[in-house]
Each structure stands twice: as structure tokens, then as C-alpha cells.
Amino acid sequence: MLEVINVSKVYDDGTRALNNVSFTVEDGEFLVLIGLSGSGKSTMLRCINRLIDPTEGRILYNGQDITNADPRELRQIRRQIGMVFQHFNLVKRSSVLRNVLSGRLGYTNTLSSVLGLWSAEDKQKAMENLRLVGIENKANNRADELSGGQQQRVGIARAMMQEPTLMLADEPVASLDPALADSVMRYFEKLNQERGTSVICSLHVLGLARRYATRIIALKAGEVVYNGDPDLIDDVRFREIYGDEAVEHSLR
Amino acid sequence: MAIEPLTPEQVVKKTVKSDEPTKPTPEPTLSAKRLIGLALLLALMTWAYRAAQVEPQLLWENRDKAVPIITDLLTPSLLTRGEETQQVVVRVEAPCETSTGPVVEAGSGAQITLSSNCLNPGDSLTVSGSGLRPDTGGRLYWQHPNAQGRLRDERFRTDANGNFTVDTDIPQLLEDLGGGETELQTILSWESGRLRASDALTETFHAIIETIFLALMATTLGSLIAIPISFLAARNIMPRTPLGNAVYGLTRTALNITRSVEPLILATIFAIWVSFGPFAGVLALSVSTIANIGKLFSEAAESIDDGPLEAIRSTGGNELEVVWFGVVPQIIPPYLSFMIYYWDINVRMSTIIGFVGGGGIGLALSHWINQTQWNNAATAVWAIVIVVFAMDYISAIVRERLI
Amino acid sequence: MSNPAALAALFSLILPGAGQIRSGHRSRGLIILVITLIIVGLVLWLNLSPASWLGLAVAWAANVWDAWLIAGGQRPKTALLALALALPIYVIGWQVTNIDLVRFFTSANRAAPVVRGLLRPDFFAREIDYGIAGNDFYLPCPAPADAESSAAPNGATVTISQNCGLPGETVQLTGQGFDPNQTLQLWWTNPVGAESRVRIFGEFEPFQVDENGGFQTEITVPNQRYEADNPRAHSLELRYIASQSSYQVTENARLVASRIGETIAQALMATFVGALLAMPFSLFGARNLMAGNPALKVLYYISRTVMNVLRSVEPLIMAIVFVVWVGLGPFAGVLALTMHTIAALGKLYSESIESIDVGPIEAIRATGANQFQIIAYGVLPQVIPPWIAFTVFRWDINVRMSTIIGFVGGGGIGFLLAQWIRLSEYRAAGAAIWAIAVVVIILDLISARVRERLI
Q1: What is the interface pTM, i.e. ipTM, of the complex?
Q2: Quick one: pLDDT band at residue A244, thresholds 50, 70, 90?
Q3: How far apart are CA B308 and CA B313, in angstroms?
Q4: Percent of residues in chain B assigned helix, strand, coil, to nearest 5
């Protein structure tokens, strides 16, 4: 269970990205964060694994305080939490396999990882995960030779290497063709339903959010403006979240 | 020669953005601002003209001086034929008391006759020979046992029958060296045999290889040291703590100051330190490489994509793993490309630092220039041109591949 | 032998790269072959030590291993192969360049005077007036009756235990009437007028007068030449600082300032003239302008080649020619820099012409303009900002270069610096080096600012 308690984040330039945000995520939930760009979705996700340090508030994961963890504890927590990024964040010049294996870094000691001495088990697991996302034949290609959809699947495979109990996904389909978006989202659904991994995913397309989410949290200017059932977002709520001029249709 | 802080491509990249429409340039008008600017430029140029003591007429007046050098530079010494010699040695005593008549000495099928067997400085002497190689140039030399070198005397040329006669004076130096028995050498020399590489060409070849290796060693050594330094001078890698900022600022400043010291000056210092030779050159170029490539490296490190770093941090990797898996793969291609670029630059530079004792082709070149052996100097100059040209070309191709 | 991997390895063992070529990796094999041949040639020709043979063996083995991996269908380890091939090259390089780390550390003291000079550049100095109390000292004995001793201006006197003697003898000096606690230096002047400091107890250190204004010390007569039957007067002097001025700009600093000006002027002149001459050249060297007919194309290739060749002749070498031609001095440097500037700027200029936007040119051509009008209205307005940036950048480079050219007689600060280094006047040289560094850094900043502005 993840508990977010009164979290605020003020950047050095004075921007208040999050303002007193609180919510909880039960195990096995598929939570989707929606909101305009700049509403604080990315900041919220990065506060959870502390790629960004929150200014105020606390975040607990399974009772353990993330916000006050020392670097060693933090790495322990991070390896339980996978993350997938909008721009995939692959090391473009490294091979797909090496990118996927880097998901095991939290479990491997530094020396052997730097020397490239991965255990046979890890390699096998990497190939399995690549098979799961359907690109095992690309394992030895350079990451930048792959298409966008394939790169994102590498990103997912990398996160799965951590055997996470919680998966964070920051706009995982925003850089993809709409036709591919659905197929990528299905991997998260599969992960959620077959392995019971909790998923927190930020999206800006409401249609996708409605299709996959078990619950939706909407952020606006750093504050939670909706927290509840996906099907209960009606026209009025929609305008509340996205502003008066928005029409759902234009957002697909 | 001077270290160019930016590669030409970088300047082009920074100044010409071909994909963006160029700002429309206003039509030139004769505004007051422009007039003042023009006047300032004129004044500046007048001052520069005087201060730099420009005298264009000298170019024309002294053209006679330039012609031989340029001719020699265009005809480098590449091939020579072997030299054969014929030599007859006459031993005489100088100074001595009284003459008892002429001396005749035979050797290698020829015969040399001296008009007197008693020589005193200032006396005139007639040397004649017969049975020598016909139509060949020759020269007389004095070789005194107390002197290291030999003293050059008259030149002569044999006639169609192999005879010659030449008059000369006895040099005072023989007495100054202590007198006694002196050798008078009659040496004929002529070219023969097959063409072979001239000494200048062999030496140039040797020296240019030394230069290439000198540049290679300096580039490698300098780059290896510059890699950790470049991390210290990269804004995105140094933590934003007071200590991090201080290290970053100090490293940057140190790099900037070192960069403004010419390699020629560094080479002068190192030539005093470890004495003349290629090692001094390696050290000087290493230091200048650290300063220049360190800056380029740190800029490359600053321009990497942060995404992968974030991804690796989110998997629970520690800072070392973040650098190894996120930073290193991204910086290898630009770093290698800069290293090759600097090898190229260092080859040029090592030709210069040779002039102050840095070894390599520059040392040979400065040697020949000091002795005004322009033919030999030309060999070195052309070798430099060819190697620089080739390195330029190869480095451009390799760098294109790497990016 | 049926195993393809073993066969390829055997091929590569006999001729490096052959196994790779046989497996279809032709360029890889050829690169390996060429590199090994070069290494073997160098090792044989330069007659190097066994270490390079060892390096060669490693490279050879790596090549065999690589052929085996490739032919066996395994992933080749290119990075390891490259390292193995580089190993003998570096071993050779180490020997060719006489790298000697021991000497680097053991002779560090030889660099000390240079570094000290660099750290204490001769910009400012105090003028010091010395007071002198002197005594004649005769080498050898006897001294004539009229041997002199002169009192210092403030009435201090020095008594000497004997006023004649031979080198190596010990002499007692007593003095009184000096200012209390004053520092004294002891100097010896021989009859020719050459001065040297005298060691006191083996040290050059100045010594102190006690609180009563007196002192007593013992010196050894220095090793000076003398003729046994001809006693000559040497002078033993005690010097002390009578007065000193405040810090003033030294003569050397003034010289540095004027020569730095000369260097800047040289660079200005060379950049200006070079830029003017590079402009027409760059038009001929721009592919997109010269694409019209074969004659223009020939012109393009000619001007490109001339610029390339000229660019690879170091300005230093050009300077040597011009020094002989027009004599020592800044003008020779200007000429050499101008030649190099034409080549370097010509290339950059023509590249910026090649990368311009063709749209406006098409538009102007469509109006029926001729070639010159196209250049004037379509090309020049687009290239002037980058041209200015390149030119300023070149000025910056030319200042650096002109300091180098001075070393072979091209005038400017470099000429002065080379002289001082040859005379071992490191403090003066230090002043010149610092001045160059300051000017270079300032120009760097200016040219960076100008370039930024013009983007």
C-alpha cells in the first residue's frame, strides 16, 4: 500500500508543482493520474521514487517512509518500484539486452555490474521479459535502431526486471502513435492483472484512462480535483479538470 | 598551430542555422552610427599598419632574396645517387726549414706532385696531378693531426686526360695547430650508381614517425587525464552543493588559464626540465591537450540526455552505476571523436614545438633552417604538409563514422 | 580440417586478417592486416626492444581469436581487439618518444627557475639605493702602505684583521656604527670590476647587525685569480639598504606592453587583409555557386585545392620564408599570418555560402537577376553575420599565432619572449607569458560574445 500524505513540492524557481496532495493506493490497483501538462503529474510520480525530493509531506510504501530514507534504504525501495518514461530513457547506443539488464542494477553489486558479469539467471530473465513484450529477436540490436513502440516495450521490460510490486509510468504512450498506444497499455494491464502489480500511470488522454483505470485521480495546478471511479467523470467534471474550452473529443 | 577552442564545425553549427530562415538584413544605409564605425575601423587599421611596420614595397624590392628559398622549397631533396671518390694523400711538414725539392706521391693509380716539400704558412704552393679520373671535380683538404675537422682549400677540375694543376697558399692555421706533419688530401668525387633516398629524406621519414607517435602519446596521455577532470568540470555531473560548486569553478578556471598558455611555451619549460627531445614534446602537448580537450569533454558531458540517468536511478542503481550505465555509453562517441581531432591538431603542433627542443620533425626542420639547407628543409616541410593533409582527411572520415 | 572456426583461426595465424576476410568481413580483415603490417615494419625498421615484440604477439593472438569467434558465428569482441591492436602501437610510441618518467621526477629541480620566474613576473620592482662600506684587500701579500678603507655615509666603519692574503685564508671582520639590527650583504669586487657575493659560513645569506650597531664575523677569501709577484687591490664591501622607492613599473613591463600592442596590430592587419582577400576566393570555392558549367567547376576545384594546401603549411614555416624575404620584424609575421588567414577564412566562408537557404536565391533568380545580382542580393545578406563571426574568431587565433611566429623572427611579443628564454631571463619571460595569457583570455571572451550576438 502506498500512502501519500500532504505532499507539496516547490521548485527552486518558486513554482509550486504540488500543493498538499494526499491519496492512497491499495495493492493491485490500476491508478491513472490525469490532468493538463504542468498540472504536476510527472512531479507526483517522481516524488514517489524520490527522483524529485518533495518539499513537504510524507510518502509511505508498505509502511516504510520513503521521504526520510537514507540513500541505501532509498535504493532498496526504488528497486521494488519500476518506472517507465515518456521518452523511454534508453541508453541509445547500448544494446537492447544491456538496457534491459540495467533493470537489475538494484540487485547486483557494483563491481560485477560494471564489469558486465551478469548472472545466467538475470540474462535468462531478461530474455523472458523481452519475449513477454514480443521483441526477443531484437536483443542484440542497438536501442536506437528500434521504433518508438519497440523502445517503449524495452523500457517496460527493463522495469519488469526489477520484479516490482509497484509500477510507475510517466506518460508512457504520449510519444507514440495512437494505434500503438493501446498495445503498450495492454502490457501494463497484463502486469496488473496477472502479477498483481499495482500501477500508477499518468495519461493525458481520458479515453485510455477510462479504459484501463480502476481509479482516476485528476490533478489541476498541483491539487487533487478528482479522486474516484473512472466512469463518474462526466462533462462537468471534465471541464473542471481540463478547463472550459476543452472538448473531450479533441483529446480523442 | 594555435589551439582552436572550437572545431570549425562547431563554429559553423553555432553561427549558421541553415534550417532556420535567416533574419532579413536591413538595407545598408549611411547612418551616423555606421559612419562612426567606419571611421573607427579606419583609425584602428592605420594604427595597426604603423605598429606592425607594414612595408609592402619590401616584397618587391627584396624579391631576389625570396627566389632561391622558394625555388629550394619547391625542389625538396628526395633522391640522390651514391658518391664515389678517388683520394691521394701527401704527407708534408709545415712549417719547416729549407726546401729540398718537389714531392711526388702516387696512390690509387694516380700521381700528385707538390712544387715544394718544405711548407711555411703564406708560401704559395702548386699542386698538380695526373692519371686521375678525367673531367671530374675535386678539392684539396688539409688534415692536421691536432684538429678534428679538415680545412677546405682550392677546388679544381681535371681535364680530359685526368690532369690538373692548381695554385694555393699554405694556411696559417697549420702552424697555429702546432706544426709538424700534415696531410694534404686530394679528393675527387662524382655521383654514380643507382638513385637512392637522400639522407634528408631518410631523416625526415624517421622524424615524421617520431612526430606522429609523439602526438599519439600526448593525445592519449592528455585524454586519459582529461576524462576525470571533465567530469569535475561538467555542471550536470557535479552535485549542486557548495563543495560541488567550488570544485566545478576551480576546475573550469584552471582549464581556462592553462588553455591560454601556448604549447610552445610549455615545450620550452619542459625542454629545460627533461632536456631536449621528444619526451619534452610529449609532456608539453599532454598538458595543452588536457586543458583543451578537458573543456570539450566537459561540454560533451553536459550535453548528454538526462533520461537514461533518471531511468537507472529509478531502478535503484547507485551513483557509480548511474555514471557507468547512463553517462559513459553516451559520451564515448564524442570523446573518441574529440581525441582523433586532437591527434590531428597535436601532429601540427608537434612540428612547431620541435623548434624549441620538443623533438620530432620540428627539430630536424629548425636544424636545417639554421644551417640554411633549404633543400633539406623543403623535404621536411612537404612531409609535414602531406602528413597534416592525410591526418585531416582520415580524422574527418573517422569522426563522421563515430557520430 | 572441417571446423570452420579453427580453419579461420589458422588463416589469421599465418596472415593477420585473412581469416576474417575469408569469413566475409573484408574491411575488418583488411584493417587488421594493414595495422599489423605497419607494426611489423616499424618494429623491424626502428630496431626496437623485445617489449614491442611482446606487444605484437598480443595483437597477433587477438587477431587469431577474433577470426575464430567470427567464423564460429559468435559475437566478436571488437573493443578488446582494438585494445590488443593498440597495445604494440603504444609500446612503440613509448620507445620512440623516449618517455622517461624517472627523469621527469628526478630533474624537476631544473624547471624550478623557470617556474619561479613565471610565478614572479617582472612587472613591478622597487629601486633600491645601497650604502657601502668598503675595504681594499690585496691578493697576494704584501699590501702597499696606502691601502684604503672607506667609511659608509652614516659613519659606520669596518675593520679587517688583515688587508692582504691568499684565497682560502680566514679573515676577521668587525664593524661598528651601523644602524642596529640592519641587514648587511657582503660583496667582493675583483680588479676587473666583476662582483660576487661572499659566503659567510658557507652561506650567501645576508647577516644582521646586533642591537648595538656592531658585528663580528669571519669570512674565507674567495677563490680569485692572482699573480704571485703582483699584488692587486680587490675590494671587500658591506652593502646595506639605504633607501628604497615604492613599487614601480619596470622597463621590461613597458617593453612587454609595447610589444603586445605590436602583436595585436599584427593580428588585426593580417585578419583584415586576409579577410578581404578570402572573400573572392570563397565565392570560387563554394560548390553551389560554381555548379553552373565545367569552367566554373574547374575554378572551384582549383581554389579549393589552393586553400587546402595553403592551410596545411604552418604559418611558422611561412614566417621563416618571409623573414628571409622582408627581414626580421613584425611585417614578416603579418605576411605569414595573412597567407594562412586567406586559406583558413576562405574555407569557412565558402562553407557558410554552401549552407545558405536556397529559397531567396531562387526567388531572385526568378526575377531575372544575373549571377552578380544573385550574389549581392541573395547570398551576401545571408552570409555576412557568420562571416563576421568567423573573422573575429580568426583575429583571436591570429593573436595566439603571432606570439608563436615571433619565435622565428616574426616580431611582436613572441620575438621578445624567445630572446628572454634564450638568455634565461625567466622573470621577464614570465611577464611576457602572463601578458599573452591575459590578452588571449580577453580576446577569447570578446570573440565568444560577438559570435553569440550574431547567431
Answers
A1: 0.72
A2: low
A3: 8
A4: 55, 15, 25
B52 closest CA partner among A1, C412, A5: C412
Question: pLDDT tens for residues A191-233?
Answer: 999 889 999 999 888 888 888 999 999 998 899 988 988 888 8
Q: What architecture does CATH give domain A1-77+208-252?
A: 3-Layer(aba) Sandwich (3.40)
> Residue B324 has what DSSP assignment?
I
The string of DSSP letters for C67-85 reads HHHHHTTPPP-HHHHHHHH
User: pTM of the prediction?
Assistant: 0.70
CA-to-CA dists, residue B45 to A213, B7, B57, C96, C272, angstroms? 74, 28, 18, 48, 8
- Burial pattern A45-78, b for ≥16 Cβ within 10 A else e, equals bbbbbbbbebeebebebeeeebbebeeeebbebb
Side chain identity at residue B177, one-letter code: L
Encode pLDDT of C371-410 as tens digits: 777 777 777 778 888 888 889 889 988 998 888 888 888 8
Query: C-alpha grid cell for residue A157?
Result: 521490460
**What span, in angstroms and rounded, lies between the C-alpha atoms of A47 and A26?**
18
Q: Is B135 left (phi over 0), alpha (psi -120 to 50) or beta?
A: left
Partners of A71 on chain B (C-beta within 8 Å) are 318
Q: Cβ distance B268 to B197 under 8 Å? A: no
- Cβ contacts of residue C31 below 8 Å, gap of 6+? C17
Contact C19, C30 (CB under 8 A): no
Long-range CB contacts (within 8 A, 24+) of C442-450:
C443/C395, C443/C396, C443/C399, C444/B5, C444/B260, C444/C396, C446/C392, C446/C396, C447/C392, C447/C393, C447/C395, C447/C396, C450/C388, C450/C389, C450/C392
Specify whether the CB–CB gap between B348 and B269 falls below 8 A. Answer: no
Contact B314 A103 (CB under 8 A): no
CB spacing of C333 vs B52 below 8 angstroms = yes
Strand order from edge to edge, sheet including A215-220: A81-84, A166-170, A198-202, A30-34, A215-220, A223-228
Domains along the sequence of chain B with CATH: 82-196 (2.60.40), 199-402 (1.10.3720.10)
Q: Is A18 helix (H, G, I), strand (E, B) or coil?
A: strand
Asked if A110 contacts B318 with a C-beta cutoff of 8 angstroms, the reply is: yes
Q: Mind telling me how many Å the CA of B324 is from chain A's nearest CA?
A: 7
Mutation target for A interface from B241, B314, B320: give the one with most A CBs within 10 A: B314
For chain C, which residues score pLDDT lower than 70? 1-2, 146-154, 199-206, 242, 292, 364-365, 367-368, 455
- HSE-CB for B335 with a 13 A CA cutoff: 23
Closest chain B residue to the Cα of A88, Cα to Cα: B307
Length of chain B: 403
**Cis previous bond, C167, omega within 30:** no
In this structure, are strands B181-197 and B164-169 parallel, antiparallel, or unpaired? Answer: unpaired
- Chain B residues closer than 8 Å to A51 by CB: 310, 313-314
Enumerate domains of chain C plus CATH numbers.
Answer: 4-99 (no CATH), 128-244 (2.60.40), 251-454 (1.10.3720.10)
The tens digit of pLDDT for each residue in A91-112 reads: 877 889 888 888 888 888 877 8
CB B312 within 8 A of CB B322: yes
| CB contact B11 to C (< 8 Å) | yes
Judge contact between A196 and A12, C-beta under 8 A: no
How far apart are alpha carbons B136 and B57 in whole angstroms? 45
Which residues 283-302 on chain B approach chain C with CB closer than 8 angstroms? 283
CB atoms within 10 A of CB B177: 17
Q: Cβ of B381 under 8 Å from any chain C Cβ?
A: yes
Q: Give phi and psi for C293, each to the nearest 5.
A: -130, 170
